[in-house]
Amino acid sequence: MTPSRDPTAAGVAEAAAKVSAILPPTPLLPLEIEGQTIWCKAESLQPIGAFKIRGGWHRLTALSDEDRARGVVGVSSGNHAQGVAWAARRLGIAATIVMPVDAPAVKLANTRALGAEVVLYDRPGGEDRDEVAGRVCAERGATLVHAYGDPWVIEGQGSAGIEIARQMDALGVGGPDLIVAPCGGGGLTAGLALACPDAAVIPVEPEGWDDVCRSLASGTIQSVAADAPPTPCDSLQTMATRPINFRVLRERCPFGLVVTPAEVRAAQRLAFERLHLVIEPGGAAALAAVLAGKVDLKPRTAVVLTGGNTDAADFAAVLTGDN
Amino acid sequence: MTPSRDPTAAGVAEAAAKVSAILPPTPLLPLEIEGQTIWCKAESLQPIGAFKIRGGWHRLTALSDEDRARGVVGVSSGNHAQGVAWAARRLGIAATIVMPVDAPAVKLANTRALGAEVVLYDRPGGEDRDEVAGRVCAERGATLVHAYGDPWVIEGQGSAGIEIARQMDALGVGGPDLIVAPCGGGGLTAGLALACPDAAVIPVEPEGWDDVCRSLASGTIQSVAADAPPTPCDSLQTMATRPINFRVLRERCPFGLVVTPAEVRAAQRLAFERLHLVIEPGGAAALAAVLAGKVDLKPRTAVVLTGGNTDAADFAAVLTGDN
Lengths: 323, 323
What we know:
Two copies of one chain form a homodimer. By secondary structure, chain A is of the alpha/beta class. Chain A folds into two domains: 9-50 and 151-320, 3-Layer(aba) Sandwich (Rossmann fold); 53-145, 3-Layer(aba) Sandwich (Rossmann fold). The first copy, chain A, has helices at residues 9-22, 52-61, 65-70, 79-91, 105-113, 129-140, 151-170, 187-195, 211-218, 243-252, 261-275, 285-291, 312-320; strands at 28-33, 36-42, 72-75, 95-100, 117-121, 143-145, 178-182, 200-206, 257-259, 301-305. Chains A, B: This is Pyridoxal-5'-phosphate-dependent protein. Chains A, B: Pfam families: PALP.
């Protein structure tokens, strides 16, 4: 599937208007780190527990009546699944979600609870999720809603940046000069870059899954190694970004950063203690980079906490230091 | 100390204006319970992790310059302590907080981090906290800021009700017809009753610490039994409400409800899973009553999640069912 167009700043503005018509802005919480305030965008408080509701809504509302009638297919370890399922239910569109068998149980359960049909694929066994999704689309004539390689999805995620800028303005801080965000396929980071042209944008990836970092360093799209180590950041497990994302990222992001599982856990614990938020591992990656001292903070730094969908046992182990 | 006046609805409105000038409203999150939406006020997302910042701010800003110079004293297991300390630091007032030796470590640490001097008293050993506080006040000429038996504190806490009503109005839901709130000494519930004259207000207390429930039933102020069982709800451990609170409560609350430790844990787990919020035991009491089916829900029901200050090990045990 070739996307029909590149995402634009105007598209992000349109997405922000559509999102704000149905969802109140998520809070932007101050956090003092060594005497400096950074602004944490709590996207974990979206109704589906993650920012993906933005892209799902912007994409599905842009479908023709004919396309809506044939349904949509999403591919996701969970958060994009819930974003598409939430938007589909609200619009009366049938949604099928292709999810890995090893997705967190809470994400599988929540996707089904939103009324979507879940088709599992064998990620650990090496089954190709795009192949599975393509087969479902062909069978049903449904529209594939890609998790990041889609102009509407990118624009939708970018609406978070519009909210951040508005909220910092309203607080008298002024718009962000730096946004640090977790990065899987680069949908959110590309959207933020379009939303906030005056801010530096730093994507943060988990150790071993740093394809965007390496792509930015080399100037061409790189993939995750076939023998990549396991990561607790299930929501950031993407093999490679796509040209539609990379064309934005390479213009706006000189580099990306990598965080270790221990750094991610430390960030989850800090968010628990100081912000009283449940943040999933992937959702804490950007905060982890800040806490680890890997980011040169600017006076108006925003950090996106992208999601909070994590299993109770996993989160308990993070809190007690058992994993 | 006899309070100088009763709290008023006009005082709540003034408090709401003062609070909204320095703190953005906390989110009001929808939660679907058996097909009905209830509105959860996430006071755990205040900068100190609890609603007590409201009363502290309204009380301390009302002090004369002379009184400010002599400092303030608070008595608290933690959340009121942080509320007073936060307001005092912002206003340049010296704060001394009398806290029980068995307060959650995170609350002790956070109170000290806010610059307050902490004086410990031996709660398990039966030492009287009011006596300790009176001694400190006498020594220093400081003003006692009572955790609930104070008109400004009551009005300040009531500002949460003004926010709830505004937020539900903005969502097109209409003002609340029922507010369910955790109850310790009755500062918050009295404030909510003044803030929202058209809503029923139900205070919820932990098992064994149901003095307000029994006071409402008998028509006179009752105390917690000397041999009351331990409760996980440290923030709701008050021996008795005060006349200034009870005069409001007996007019507006026909009854209160009691929740068990198991019901509280179930509510904490639901808030974790569905709202991605960290809620302390006492903060989850009202939600616990709703989940346990003890509340006759009305079409526009709001539930206050009062705080999120809980130790990591305790919260992990709640998540894994180990306590």
